[in-house]
Amino acid sequence: MTSGPDPKALRDAIDKMEIGELQSRYMYAIDWFDEEVYGGCFTQDAILSWPEGHAQGREAIAGAVARIGQFFGRFAEAAKPTKPAKLRHFVTNRVIRIDGDTAHAVAYWFDLNNDNQPRWPYVAGYGYYQDDLVRTADGWRFSKRFVMNEISAVSPPENPAW
User: Fold this and answer.
1) Going from the N-terminus, what domains does the chain have, and what CATH number goes with each?
2) What is the pLDDT of residues 3-46, one digit of tens each?
């Protein structure tokens, strides 16, 4: 007689995959300066703390990626007729702890940029995320996201992945 899979372990595995997909969707939204998708990764009252400052609420958070898009749009316009530079963000080394309808996650991130004349990519930034998440009717969303950029700030001495 065999028993089936542990329902909680199975649910946690599915939740972790859904959270990983949310983290990846966030990265694509940054790279395409997609305000709607970017804002949609957060709860209505979410808090985003990142090197550019703090934003609270989905609308303010969505506005942050719009400003980034405008900034890079000016570079693209100035570089014409050269192919515009691109940023590509990546997320890796996820550690996720599920607690019912809430979760805490940490993950490394890095981005590649090619804002040089031959358009060769280089690592432009790296760090880690600390996320608080909640399960909503629309799936997992960030309720709080802290972005540590380890190029411009000092890493904490303790391991952020508990």
Assistant:
1) 7-149 (3.10.450.50)
2) 888 999 999 999 999 999 999 999 999 999 999 999 999 999 99
Assess contact for 153 and 51: CB atoms under 8 A: yes
What's this model's pTM, rounded to 2 decimal places? Answer: 0.91
| Mean pLDDT, rounded, of the chain | 93
Give the closest residue to 144 by CA, choosing from 44, 59, 62, 63: 44
Q: Name the one residue in this structure whose structure tokens are 């990764």.
A: 41
Count of positions (residues) in the chain: 162
Q: Are strands 102-113 and 87-99 parallel, antiparallel or unpaired?
A: antiparallel
29 CB-contact burial (10 Å; exposed 0-12 / middle 13-18 / buried 19+): buried
In which residue are the tokens 């609420």 written?
57
Contacts within 8 Å (CB) and 24+ apart, 150-156: 150/126, 151/125, 151/126, 151/127, 152/51, 153/51, 153/127
